[in-house]
């Protein structure tokens, strides 16, 4: 990213189209309703967005179903779909400045990260699934000589995709990549808190050669557009990322409609476990600070529960508290900013409510704890560290989705495991130890979808992402994601002679 770019000037000149995207064209909501989208940077209204309802969802699903049934996309060879999706990835990179700016204005993340992380990862994901789709083989079962049993993958049909507000493009790409590559049609419902890049992505996909109707976007509220999509009788599966509370509703909607498959990637309260036999305490402390405060702490896999052996806890907390100076909130449109604004005033009140609860329940606030930059009209909170917490406290037990870290001290390995696994969530975890036996032993016993050893947040599209327990089911990323958006068909052939 060039430091010469004046992002404020670009933001002022940006024209934002908030209409839905169905069957290859921009459309207003059927009843003409809109909602005002404000930017968390300064509280300013930046767009009027179509408030889609059940009629709009019906139109989008019908468009997706028609596109699937007539084979304009589903009937293309894997190699043909690959070429279009590769062009789609190229289009995303070509529009990187516009997409990054929309993402920054929409949810308050720093422009530098929107460019280097969000846009780049979105393009890589689409390109990776494009490359993968013509390299997946079907199977022949080991049947007797008088029969031939073929096991083939087929696209499911119409996939409803519902994504959260914290990583709008990345979360969408994790589902769009495998769903589109497999030949499905998609109806995407972005969060009403950050809907703007979704419609632009759909336009870029059509420009790349994706046929109209294959990728549709219906912005709106969860209890309106989201519910209508999840209840729709002609949607074959839902790929959902969001809160555990809403994930339960997704399962209920499936039961009330057509028993569509539901793949939930839900919340987390990830444990970061540091033993006293890990020599480089400074590296562990700096790692947890960087991971916790990235994206303003608005990450489902944020290491918000930090379990530290009591013999090294004082030093560890001292380093983490000092590290918060590097992550102070600043103007998201400034090139050097590393922490931006919380997504809206509702999330601001939620985070401050948890901070107040931590103080009232007896935890020791050793850094941060205040709302800042109030003069901007935006929603900014200092990186906050609580020491001497325990699992009876809300801040150590519940997902906050903000820059709030809880440090819990332990004496023994068994105690650390009991606390780490004593959560309703199981998304990610980390163990820090120079004892290879302990590292393996603890990693095997941690009940989480991803366990990091002596690092955190190292990542690649080739590995699955998802959780245990109330962190959801199914996996995003990797070749395993194709399992969610394809049906397995067995074809038996009798051989006479």
Keywords, separated by commas or semicolons:
single chain; 497 residues; alpha/beta; seven-stranded mixed beta sheet; five-stranded parallel beta sheet; 20% strand; globular
Describe the structure.
With 497 residues, this protein is α/β, with parallel strands linked by helices. 38% of the residues lie in helices and 20% in strands. It has 15 helices and 23 strands. A seven-stranded mixed β-sheet has the order 14-17-18-13-12-20-21, with helices on both faces. Strands 9-8-7-10-11 form a five-stranded parallel β-sheet, with helices on both faces. α13 (394-397) links the parallel β17 and β18. α3 runs antiparallel to α5 (111-133) and α10 (281-293) packs across α11. The protein is globular. The chain starts with 6 loop residues before the first helix and ends with a strand. The mean pLDDT is 97.
Strand and helix map with partners:
Elements: H1 7-13, E1 20-22, E2 25-27, E3 34-38, E4 45-50, H2 54-69, H3 78-94, H4 96-107, H5 111-133, E5 139-140, E6 147-155, E7 158-162, H6 168-181, E8 185-189, H7 196-207, E9 215-217, H8 222-231, E10 237-241, H9 244-256, E11 261-265, E12 271-274, H10 281-293, E13 305-309, H11 310-323, H12 345-360, E14 364-367, E15 371-372, E16 380-381, E17 384-387, H13 394-397, E18 404-410, H14 413-421, E19 425-426, E20 428-432, H15 436-445, E21 450-453, E22 468-469, E23 486-494
Parallel strand pairs: 7-8, 7-10, 8-9, 10-11, 12-13, 12-20, 13-18, 17-18, 20-21
Antiparallel strand pairs: 1-2, 3-4, 5-6, 6-23, 14-17, 15-16, 19-22
Helix pairs in contact: 2-8, 3-5, 3-7, 4-5, 5-6, 10-11
């Amino acid at each position: 990213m060039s430091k010469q770019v004046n992002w404020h000037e670009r933001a002022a000149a940006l024209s934002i189209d908030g209409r839905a995207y169905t069957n290859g064209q921009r459309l207003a909501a059927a009843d003409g309703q809109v909602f005002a989208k404000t930017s968390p940077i300064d509280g300013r209204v930046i767009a009027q967005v179509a408030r889609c309802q059940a009629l709009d969802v019906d139109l989008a699903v019908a468009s997706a179903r028609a596109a699937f049934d007539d084979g304009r996309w589903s009937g293309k060879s894997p190699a043909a779909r690959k070429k279009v999706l590769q062009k789609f990835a190229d289009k995303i990179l070509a529009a990187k400045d516009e997409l990054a700016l929309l993402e920054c204005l929409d949810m308050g993340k720093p422009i530098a990260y929107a460019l280097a992380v969000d846009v780049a990862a979105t393009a890589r994901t689409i390109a990776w699934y494009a490359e993968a789709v013509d390299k997946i083989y079907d199977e022949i079962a080991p049947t007797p000589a008088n029969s031939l049993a073929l096991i083939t993958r087929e696209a499911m049909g119409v996939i409803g995709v519902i994504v959260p507000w914290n990583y709008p493009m990345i979360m969408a790409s994790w589902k769009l990549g495998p769903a589109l590559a497999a030949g499905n049609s998609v109806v995407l419902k972005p969060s009403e808190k950050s809907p703007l890049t979704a419609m632009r992505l759909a336009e870029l996909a059509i420009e790349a050669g994706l046929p109209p109707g294959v990728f549709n976007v219906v912005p709106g509220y969860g209890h309106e557009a989201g519910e209508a999509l999840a209840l729709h009788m002609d949607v074959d599966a839902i790929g959902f990322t969001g809160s555990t509370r809403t994930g339960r509703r997704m399962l209920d909607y499936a039961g009330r409609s057509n028993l569509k498959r539901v793949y939930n990637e839900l919340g987390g309260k990830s444990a970061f476990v540091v033993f006293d036999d890990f020599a480089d305490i400074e590296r562990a402390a700096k790692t947890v600070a960087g991971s916790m405060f990235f994206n303003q702490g608005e990450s489902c896999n944020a290491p918000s529960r930090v379990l530290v052996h009591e013999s090294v806890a004082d030093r560890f907390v001292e380093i983490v508290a000092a590290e918060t100076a590097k992550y102070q909130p600043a103007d998201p449109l400034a090139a050097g900013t590393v922490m931006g604004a919380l997504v809206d005033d509702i999330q601001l009140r939620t985070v401050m409510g948890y901070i107040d609860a931590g103080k009232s329940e007896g935890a020791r606030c050793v850094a941060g704890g205040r709302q800042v930059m109030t003069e901007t009209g935006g929603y900014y909170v200092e990186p906050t560290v609580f020491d001497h917490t325990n699992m009876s406290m809300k801040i150590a037990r519940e997902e906050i989705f903000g820059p709030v870290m809880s440090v819990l001290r332990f004496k023994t390995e068994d105690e650390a495991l009991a606390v780490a696994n004593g959560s309703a969530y199981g998304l990610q975890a980390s163990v820090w130890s120079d004892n290879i036996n302990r590292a393996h032993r603890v990693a095997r016993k941690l009940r989480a979808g991803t366990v990091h050893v002596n690092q955190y947040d190292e990542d690649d599209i080739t590995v699955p992402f998802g959780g245990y327990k109330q962190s959801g089911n199914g996996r995003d990323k990797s070749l395993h994601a194709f399992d969610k958006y394809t049906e397995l068909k067995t074809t038996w052939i009798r051989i006479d002679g």
